[in-house]
Amino acid sequence: MNRKQKKLLKSYLKYEDFLIEDLKANPKEAELYLKSALKEYQEHKDDRVLLLALNHIAKVRGISAVAKDTHLTRQTIHRALSMKGNPRFSTLTSIIHSLGYSLTFRHIRTNP
Fold first, then answer.
1. Residue 107 to residue 109: CA distance in whole angstroms
2. pLDDT tens-digit profile of 16-42?
């Protein structure tokens, strides 16, 4: 990693710390953040944004608490919610439920 990359990573980590503290202090903001990430996923089919948002919310709650609640290891949660994550549906729904959210379905179009 070169100097420029290290500086960028350091800046990102400071921002991530700020974001997590802000989300911790504002639960409604956390919900809006997740809804925005889900909308982004639905529009662009890029799951990295949604996984990153779930990762941030999991850090707000505490990865250890999520692990205990879901009966998954901390490593499994970190891997599932990483930018390279490819979690099973059951893993994702367990994490989402542990964070205090649920998946809901709504009809978006009719078939001719």
1. 6
2. 888 998 999 999 999 999 999 999 999
